[in-house]
Amino acid sequence: MEPLWTGQDMADAMGARPVHGLPNAVTGISIDSRTLQPGDAFFAIKGENFDGHNFATAAAAAGASVLVISENKLPALGRLNLPMMVVSDVLDALGRLGAAARARSKAKIIAVTGSAGKTTTKEALRHVLEASGKVHASAASFNNHWGVPLTLARMPADTRFGVFEIGMNHPGEITPLVKLVRPHIAIVTLIAAAHLGHFKDLNEIAHAKAEIFGGIASGGAALINRDDGKFNLLQKLAKAAGVDKIYGFGAHDRAKVRLLNAKYLDDCTTVTARVFDEEVAVKIGVPGRHMVQNVLAVLGAAKLSGADMTKACHALSTLEPEKGRGQRHKLQAGNGTFTLIDESYNANPASMEAALDLLATAPVERRGRRIAVLGDMLELGRHSRDLHERLADPIVSAGVDRLYLAGPEMRALADKVPNDIYCEYEKSADDLVGSLMATPQAGDVFMVKSSNGIGFSRIVKAFLDKYPRAGG
Q1: What is the sign of the dihedral through the CA atoms of 235, 111, 162 and 349?
Q2: Are both 142 and 275 inside the same structural domain?
Q3: Same domain, 253 and 376
């Protein structure tokens, strides 16, 4: 098996000065000594809350093949009898290694951004493209100033498809990242009120997301949500960035990847779509209307990247939701079962409405109830109160029977919910746990949704710890 990098190639790419020699082979790239595997290169990145140099000894003990360290830290670490690559700035060096990985790659590169659905679309692309060749994709949500270069640096030379998630919460963040990635295909999933506290309005968010077009490789393509109200603006910005191939996906009549028909079932969705000049019928293993829009982008990117479309379509039937992003658990309660839908990873107004739509279509059994457990949507700034209050109508439309809310921002929604819906509000996720654990009845469906920082994953864990899985 070919190593990810030779020590010499790494040092050359980064302009690093070797100390104590160079390893023949580097099998992986790590920035965390706790998850480092023997043979990995350890990059001692200095973050806001930690300095990787403080963990260099632990990385060496875990089997690192080489340490990438800052010049000013060498006096303190030079006593370690391990190959080192000394650089002026470790994060910059990681970026140079990422650029070298992109330069040597013959892979079709796809980049995904948007206000919602980035990780879901990235993971769906990983899943369907694996049927056509070796795929390298971002781990978790590695979509920022260290996650993108780290993902690039980890890309094997023989990769056929590279899939990169690119995020932002301020203007100017995407530009340097997309210039590293240089995608052949750039997807914008949706423009919505995420991180609105850092922007004046949705137009400013669209401009920030449109930075992705500036890094598209020559002859590359942009795939934009044709049903999004900001499509025309994004199309204009893509043209201004020099992109000639601009395609829409959605139900819109002029979409090049066009939804023809969709049937929403309890545990899946069936879709007929026209993908450029080819009509396809697919079964999506994950239920929900929001998944259909994501899958249209996936089908368009698969077609543009030269993947085997028959295999890609077939693979969609075995697609599964990620943890915290719609994962379902069937749990025992009394003499029956209830369903827990885990949407606890993140939330903004668009994804909150999509999750409530998912709850509305989830089947309840016997006298089961639809129960929404919602926490704050963060980074909405001065718009926060209004956007939380606006969730009252989607909650009514979803047929929610009981509502549990937590977080300072959710207070505004608690005051807006109609009196005929049972509503309990607490200051924090932990304060909700007691009453929630006594709530489940056979046939119920719970949906848990909040921004990650609110800690609603602890509510999900409490459910899973207390209630046994059905059939297991």
Answers
A1: negative
A2: yes
A3: no
**What would the pLDDT profile of 34-69 be if each residue is shown by its tens digit?**
999 999 999 999 988 889 999 999 999 999 999 999
SS3 (DSSP) at 271: strand
Structure tokens at 234: 């994004």
Q: Angle, to 10 degrees, between the axis of helix 118-129 and the axis of helix 289-304?
A: 50
CA distance 68 to 153: 13
Structure tokens at 437: 């654990």
Does one domain contain both 21 and 133?
no
Beta strand 257-264 pairing with 269-275: antiparallel
Domain residues for the domain of 299 are 105-318
- In terms of domains, do 356 and 292 share one? no
- pTM score of the predicted model: 0.84
Instruction: Looking at the structure, tell me whether residues 374 and 445 fall in a common domain.
Output: yes
Provide the β-strand partners of residue 136: 162
Judged against a pLDDT cut of 70, whether residue 197 lies above it is answered with no
Residues 213, 241: Cα–Cα separation, whole Å: 6
CATH number at residue 45: 3.40.1390.10
CA distances from 394 to 219, 229, 350 (A): 42, 19, 11
Pull the structure tokens for residue 65: 């093949």
422 residue type, one letter: Y
